[in-house]
Amino acid sequence: MVKAKFFKITKIFEGEIKETDLTLEEEELPPIEDGEFLVEALYLSIDPYMRAIAKSYTPGQVMIGSQVARVIESRDPSYPLGTTIVGHLGWRTHTIVKEPSNHGVYIVPDFGNLPISLSLGVLGRTGIAAYFGFVDICKPVEGDTVVVTAAAGAVGHQVGQIAKILGCRVIGIAGTEEKIKWLKSIGFDYVINYKTTPNLAEELQKAAPKGIDCYFDNVGGETSSIIMNQMNQGGRVSVCGAISSYNAKVPIRASIVQPAIVQKQLELKGFVSNQFLDRTMDGIKQNLQWVKEGKLKYRETITDGFENATRALIGVIRGENFGKALVRVKTSHVANESVDFSNALNKFKKLSR
């Protein structure tokens, strides 16, 4: 018998998440049956959206989230022992999977010598959100000026680099001087510290005297209103999130943006990464190529220990992470991260045809 640990939501979040809002529990899993396989988590993905959709949570529910996991027992020939998968399996150390498609499960393709943790970051659904959320919605062209908020986060730092690869001028907005320096080191042309800048509108005018063509919005609020009022005619806005309001107990108020949208004929569209599920492998292949070419750099903020997952999420909402935030799960079976990709690679080739 395998004992699984999991985090259960005990109280609906109000304001900032508290560690007491979730409890760590344990259960004994039954033997797997035909058509099932058992996985053991390697890493948990920690993302702002987990806080954003808190209204849909129910006390007693296992905390939601994606993980990269390894098959440790199988009675499903499509997922043999040792296969590494990504899936929406929640905050669990062990999970019995019966219908993989219901959990968004896919086999991790071959990354070569790159860390398997990237399958939750630049080479996972986060990378899919950055790539398609920017390219499909902002429709960048060479020479465009692009603004990215929460630019040092998992999605933001990747969007900025993709914009540079495509020949754009990129302005990032972040909240610490350390983040400012890092973003400049990975190619951002201009970076603004929104916490210390006395007048964001004036600083943006200095950074983009000819106006802004594309805006990748991760924060919402007054920051987004200021940016949209400085966009050029026909500008495009991709709305990924609104992290500025996630912990708010009352609605965040911001200047209205409808006059700018109408007068400048802006195109504004929101998205979720799951809408690109059928193009997952295309996005992963493109991001993997850029990583291998050295054009796309990544950074991970890793919290060790499954028991520290709640603390890691609190840190993400506070903006403490650089790049992708992850929890490295330490369990009895996870001795190292080497992966036998033979089965995964064959399936990846079939999916990529």
From TrEMBL:
Known catalytic reactions: nonan-2-one + NADP(+) = (3E)-nonen-2-one + NADPH + H(+); 13,14-dihydro-15-oxo-prostaglandin E1 + NADP(+) = 15-oxoprostaglandin E1 + NADPH + H(+); hexanal + NADP(+) = (E)-hex-2-enal + NADPH + H(+); 13,14-dihydro-15-oxo-PGF2alpha + NADP(+) = 15-oxoprostaglandin F2alpha + NADPH + H(+)
Subcellular location: Cytoplasm
Molecular function GO terms recorded: 15-oxoprostaglandin 13-reductase [NAD(P)+] activity; 2-alkenal reductase [NAD(P)H] activity
Keyword annotations of the record: Acetylation, Cytoplasm, Fatty acid metabolism, Hydroxylation, Lipid metabolism, NADP, Oxidoreductase, Phosphoprotein, Prostaglandin metabolism
Top-level taxon of origin: Eukaryota
A Pfam family reported for this protein in Swiss-Prot or TrEMBL: ADH_zinc_N
Acetylation is among the record's keywords: yes
Residue intervals of the Enoyl reductase (ER) domain: 19-327
One GO term (biological process): prostaglandin metabolic process
EC annotation from Swiss-Prot or TrEMBL: 1.3.1.48, 1.3.1.74
Listed GO CC annotations: cytoplasm
Subunit annotation: Monomer or homodimer.
Protein name, per record: Prostaglandin reductase 1
Organism this protein belongs to: Asbolus verrucosus (Desert ironclad beetle)
